[in-house]
Design goal:
Two copies of one chain form a homodimer.
Chain A: H1 17-30, H2 36-43, H3 47-54, H4 62-75, H5 81-88, E1 93-98, H6 106-119, E2 123-128, H7 133-145, E3 150-153, H8 164-168, E4 172-176, E5 186-190, H9 192-205, E6 211-215, H10 221-236, E7 246-248, H11 253-264, E8 272-275, H12 278-289, E9 296-300, E10 314-317, H13 320-335, E11 344-347, E12 350-352
Parallel strand pairs in A: 1-2, 1-3, 3-4, 4-5, 5-11, 6-7, 6-8, 8-9, 9-10
Antiparallel strand pairs in A: 10-12
Helix pairs in contact in A: 2-3, 2-4, 3-4, 6-13, 9-10, 11-12
Chain B binds a DNA duplex (16 and 16 nucleotides) through helix 2, helix 3 and helix 5.
DNA sequence: CTGAAAGCGCTTACAG
DNA sequence: CTGAAAGCGCTTACAG
């Protein structure tokens, strides 16, 4: 019997699983976690003394401390940080809003932000916007409502005025990968323009003139910058660009495949392709693998195994982890009150030649 | 001249950047975000009326509501969820502790957990344990102190008794990928044993008898199960296993490379390798690419571009997203009070043949 | 339809 | 060395 049904009381260690879980469940429903007040009562001390012990503050005799510790363990007390936060102001947590945690570019970036947060004693709350501006805003504001100390945002939208009340009130904010829209905020970027320009110039240097560009939706800053890099490299070489050589849009395999196949057919097919990001590159590699005539390829973003493909894939690489680390460090500088002026930080890209970008035109 | 120095007041839109930021900074220092009390004062209503409007509760005239809304916008009010949580009990957030967000296996898993959380109106807080049991415990307890409603854990350690007080008090918990140690908790796993056994049997069916196994540290449940699958397949085929054919340990490239090279040299080299996870597989692919004699390979875990390598890499695949989704759904079932008995859920694996696993022994 | 009072579980500021 | 009181910003339970 247990105490509710009036039957025999079974020691907890011997209790059948169902009973223990029912207990657990009841506990959950009534939310009866022990509080400092409970600990104080059990230890026969005041509330403030418990607080001192829990927070390792000085001014408690060894004997008192021991009694409090015993009560803490007996009750299974754990400080409620929600209450603490309410009093102290800071939550020791930061928010990260990105496009998709499952993307191999954002995983390392997120991890890097987490490591910096950890070094500052903060937890990371993250959310994926799925490239949807409304969802980005929803997430950002939910994080603000939780009173995160700061926010790292890889924006999906291009209007961030909804953040103004938060900024005014002191929420530290750093944008990464793409700049904020309509507001003045810190941003850490890769040199998307320069990287793309160099990658395309590399293809031109290897004899190509009909070069295609397949990128993400033009409203995405990185996509627009890389396209600009492509156009600049072509213009610098005095090569006029035909409309059919550029294709921007969602980067799902179907669309990219179609775009690549169109550029590669017709009377004047491209002899080389510049792929605007890792997802595009991978799909283009698949398309090229099905064709007999060699086509040169340079992709923006490095990816695992790029060196093991035949030929190895030449890429313009950016350092996702460094992007995250830099942004997070700036965020904590803001929180320390060190930074007053929003700044734009641009990290360099690097060309890695592996074969695909050095193929001559198959004319 | 601004209001602090006593000089001319410049309208905010025209204020030099530094001044606006100084203001922002001052606001942050004093933490003076508007509260419901401020809104109530400005709108000339009671606190409870503001609460009603903010939470969309009925019983407010259109006119009153409008006045409150105006005050909210004028002040840039945003409800403080920390305070709300303190009163309501639930935080509408769940925690996810995994090994490394940057690992291509965990990214999709994390994203899947996030999607389920989102469908239940909850945010996701995640942390990487870096395969360190102490760090796992630290993270889990920090999440409990924040009073997450539930916890999804990919454990690094093998003793989770530290969670007992939390479980007793009703924190919903689901383990994923590996079971909990020393406590009774829900767990969602892949069929690591069966998957590895089938993969090795596949190599045996293609004529191999000297088959190597390279896996993760044996204290990791998945590594131990996959090794058991390997041994079982070998035993089922009546093939005695030589010690030098199995190598378990950290999966960094250096160690894996050395392990592979040792198995592939000597008087009786292996003719096939079973790689215990995605990181191992990738390194083994590199080692094999440097050798002239073909060696068969089957890897546990699928990875991008496995089909484009020469030969394509045969793998045993598990569904990381499905693992995360299943775990998160079970977590919310627990929170809804539906589940009373901890359960073990095992998801199937699948063999994908692409060439590398069908190579005959090069004897 | 509206609001004053009490309380969630802590920390702060102060007094003994 | 120790503790009672006030308050963080909300919601709950209740009264008008």
């Amino acid at each position: 019997m247990d105490n509710r049904t009036g039957h025999r009381i079974v020691p907890e260690t011997a209790a059948p699983r169902g009973d223990r879980l029912a207990e657990r469940h009841a506990a959950a429903r009534y939310g009866n976690r022990p509080t400092m007040k409970d600990v104080a009562a059990r230890a026969g001390v005041g509330l403030k003394t418990v607080s001192r012990v829990v927070n390792g503050e000085p001014g408690v005799t060894a004997d008192t401390e021991r009694r409090v510790q015993e009560a803490i363990e007996a009750l299974g007390f754990r400080r409620n940080d929600s209450a603490r936060v309410l009093r102290k102001g800071r939550t020791a947590s930061i928010g990260l809003v990105l496009e998709d945690l499952a993307d191999p570019f954002y995983g390392p970036l997120s991890r890097a932000v987490e490591e910096v947060a950890r070094a500052h004693g903060a937890l990371l709350i993250n959310g994926s916007s799925a490239e949807d501006p409304d969802r980005e805003q929803e997430l950002v504001l939910a994080l603000c409502a939780r009173r995160v100390d700061g926010l790292v945002v890889i924006p999906a939208g291009d209007d961030h005025r909804y953040l103004e009340p938060e900024l005014r009130v002191g929420v530290a904010t750093v944008f990464v990968d793409r700049p904020a829209g309509q507001i003045d905020a810190d941003v850490v970027l890769s040199d998307n323009f320069g990287g793309a320009r160099d990658g395309v110039a590399h293809l031109i240097a290897h004899g190509h003139r009909r070069i295609g560009f397949i990128g993400d939706m033009p409203r995405i800053h990185t996509a627009a910058e890389r396209l600009r890099g492509y156009r600049t490299a072509m213009a610098d070489a005095g090569i006029p660009v035909t409309d059919s050589w550029t294709s921007l849009g969602v980067t799902d395999p179907q669309r990219v495949r179609r775009a690549a196949e169109e550029m590669l057919s017709g009377p004047e097919p491209v002899t080389a392709i510049f792929a605007g990001n890792n997802r595009v590159t991978v799909t283009v590699v698949r398309v090229l693998a099905e064709r007999s005539r060699p086509v040169a390829l340079v992709g923006f973003d490095d990816f695992e195994l790029a060196d093991l493909l035949q030929p190895g894939v030449t890429v313009v690489t950016q350092d996702a982890a460094q992007l995250g680390r830099t942004a997070a460090e700036r965020l904590f500088s803001q929180l320390d009150g060190a930074l007053l002026t929003p700044e734009r930080t641009e990290l360099p890209t690097r060309l890695i030649t592996r074969g695909s970008g050095e193929l001559p035109p198959a004319d």
